Amino acid sequence: MHQYENLLVQIEQGVMWLTINRPEQRNALNQETLQEIGDAFSWADANDEVKCIIIQGAGEKSFAAGADIKQLHERKMLEALIPGMQGLYKKMEQSSKVTIAAVKGYALGGGCELALACDIRIAAKKAKFGLPELNLGIIPGAGGTQRLSRVVGKGRALDMILTGRIIDGEEAERIGLVSYLTADDGLERKAEEVASQILKKGPVAIKLAKLAVHKGFDVDLETAMLIEKLSQAVAFGTEDKREGTAAFLEKRTAEFTNQ
To answer: What DSSP character marks residue 6?
Structure first.
């Protein structure tokens, strides 16, 4: 793996901790940082050692405070059509690894969209979520208008986007934006706990479950059920399925092999 300028990467027992390390800039997502995140995800997807990726921000103030405004100011109209941040977050969402956003401090604009692209979101009570792009004369452009509405509903998404208001961790949990709420000093511990539960599951089944949920969410129910059925058919043919069911019957812990 490369050494990064703006990321800290550590792998512990199947979990990759990916820390955005620009605390002086509130972990703003400049182009260099986005490229490094993309590179780290490419490496992780090709590495069977990594089962889960936890994303966090360095320091106490920010998870990621959004795009680098200086770079954004210079961008031209047609540059918005480049995949850019939206393409990266799609890559993250489609990753074969489970992704967890551990949010402390501000997750604004592209930072909020980064969290939305993760499979699971955990927030400290003092976390702050918002999509304030309209203040800059632009709109959320890295999936915010679409993922937020799918997660919390169209009405709440429109309220957050049109007013630009920032919500705390407690409200984020109440509206379903995050799955878990923790004390500020318990965030990493909760992320480890969730990751450890996931690591016990069948690796192939994890990949198939992610595929079924993501690919089935935006199609009609009949098509979605077919995606689920075909994914289950693949699971039925794996060594992991035979091991998982045998372990249950024999009252022992399954030893999955990702096959």
So the answer is: S
Active-site annotation, residues: 113, 133
Residue with tokens 């501000």: 106
- Rounded Cα distance, 63 and 56, in Å: 6
What lies within 8 Å, CB to CB, of 226 at 6+ separation is none
pLDDT digits (tens, 9 = 90+) for 21-60: 998 888 989 889 999 999 999 999 999 889 999 999 998 8
Taking the model in full, what pTM does it have?
A: 0.90
Task: Find how far residue 252's CA is from the centre of its chain.
Answer: 32
Output DSSP code: residue 67: B
Residues 213/93, Cβ–Cβ less than 8 Å: no
DSSP string, 193-256: HHHHHHHTS-HHHHHHHHHHHHHHHTS-HHHHHHHHHHHHHHHHTSHHHHHHHHHHHTTS----
